[in-house]
């Protein structure tokens, strides 16, 4: 897949697929780099914005995640705005909940 992306660097769908594959094999830095590359080419790509926000949340970077979710919400088509809001709210609330101590 990496070679395919190198041969067709302007194909955002290939790059998004590569990022998702990186996530599946727990290579989050590479996934985030791939999402960043998509965002360089298309700054308001909804999939890249939401996916990168989720990665930032996983890394404990709530502020960046909030900014990415806000950008995703602003740029989402009307039919998807509510879904982006719901996802962002759910993820941000989950991160704000204290974890119970291990017993």
What's the β-strand tally?
Answer: 0
- CATH topological fold name: Serine Threonine Protein Phosphatase 5, Tetratricopeptide repeat
Question: Helicity range of the residues?
Answer: over 70%
The figure for the number of domains is: 1
Largest sheet: none
Q: Whole-number average pLDDT?
A: 91
State Rg.
15 Å
Estimate the strand proportion.
Answer: under 5%
- The succession of helices and strands, N to C, reads HHHHHH
Number of helices: 6
Tell me what the CATH architecture is.
Answer: Alpha Horseshoe
- In CATH's first tier, which class applies? Mainly Alpha
What distinguishing features does this structure have?
103 residues; mainly alpha; Serine Threonine Protein Phosphatase 5, Tetratricopeptide repeat; globular
Task: Please sum up the structure shown.
The chain contains 6 helices and no strands.
How is the secondary structure organized here?
Elements lengths: L1 H6 L4 H13 L3 H14 L4 H13 L3 H14 L2 H19 L7
Helix pairs in contact: 2-3, 3-4, 4-5, 5-6
Structure, explained:
The structure is a single chain. The protein has helices spanning 2-7, 12-24, 28-41, 46-58, 62-75, 78-96. The chain has 103 residues and is mostly helical. It has one domain: Tetratricopeptide repeat domain (Serine Threonine Protein Phosphatase 5, Tetratricopeptide repeat). The radius of gyration is 15 Å and the shape is globular. The N and C termini lie far apart (43 Å). The model has no long low-confidence stretch (mean pLDDT 91).
């Amino acid at each position: 897949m990496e070679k395919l992306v190198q041969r067709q660097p302007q194909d955002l769908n290939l790059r998004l697929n590569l990022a998702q594959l990186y996530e599946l094999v727990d290579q989050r830095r590479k996934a985030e780099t791939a999402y960043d590359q998509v965002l360089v080419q298309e700054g308001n790509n909804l999939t890249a914005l939401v996916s990168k926000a989720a990665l930032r949340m996983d890394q404990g970077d709530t502020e960046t995640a909030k900014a990415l979710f806000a950008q995703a919400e602003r740029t989402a088509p009307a039919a998807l705005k509510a879904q982006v809001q719901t996802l962002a709210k759910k993820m941000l609330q989950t991160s704000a909940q204290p974890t119970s101590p291990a017993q």
